[in-house]
Write a structure and sequence with these properties.
There is one protein chain. The protein has helices at about 15-30, 40-45, 70-80, 105-115, 135-150, and strands at about 5-10, 30-35, 50-55, 85-95, 125. By secondary structure, the protein is an alpha/beta fold. α3 (about 70-80) links the parallel β3 and β4 (about 85-95). α1 (about 15-30) crosses α5 (about 135-150). It is globular, with a radius of gyration of 14 Å. The structure holds flavin mononucleotide. The site of flavin mononucleotide has 22 residues, from α1 and β4.
Length: about 150
């Protein structure tokens, strides 16, 4: 059994629905999930997690959803080194935004690499123009991530 800290960034709720599906699947596999819609470095540390997941949409022009901005800033300020701890990023976006497609997820992936986390599977991008089942797409990716990260 592993503990997973699951940080959610969402504006209109799609990433939240995806994160809930991810939580359910992880718990079904016997793991413990701390799903956090107001994530913070303090909560990440308190969770004593074995792995970290970020599930975030992108807003504005490649911007982070407001609810996950403080977490991103704290990661920069407090720099909690991950010492090889596995992480994964589920990135929701819309490819019609072109250059900023799934930009928020890319920012988190870069940040966790800076913090010396390890990514057993590259982040998944879920394109709102291509899928009406973002939760199923995320679960497909999660299967491989679970096999390699946990
Ligand atoms: C105002 C607005 C700005 C957006 N900007 C981007 C963007 O820059 N890049 C991107 O990939 N998707 C962008 N999107 C698309 C959303 O990320 C996508 O629809 C996502 O599924 C929304 O998830 P949420 O409901 O969890 O926020 C934008 C959507 C809106 C409404």
């Amino acid at each position: 059994m592993s503990v997973i800290y699951l940080a959610v960034g969402s504006v209109t709720g799609t990433a939240r629905i995806v994160a809930q599906a991810v939580q359910q699947q992880l718990e079904h596999a016997g793991h413990q999930v701390v799903l956090d819609e107001n994530p913070s470095v303090g909560a990440l540390n308190d969770s004593q997690c074995d792995a970290v997941l970020i599930c975030t949409s992108t807003t504005g022009r490649g911007d982070l959803p407001a609810n996950i901005i403080p977490f991103y800033a704290e990661l920069e300020q407090q720099f909690p080194l991950q010492n090889g701890k596995p992480f994964g990023v589920i990135s929701l976006g819309d490819s019609s935004y072109d250059a900023t497609f799934c930009g928020a997820g890319a920012l988190f992936e870069d940040r966790f690499f800076e913090l010396q986390g390890s990514a057993p599977v590259p982040r998944v991008t879920i394109d709102a123009t291509e899928t009406v089942t973002p939760d199923e797409d995320a679960l497909f990716w999660l299967k491989e991530w679970m096999e390699k990260a946990l």
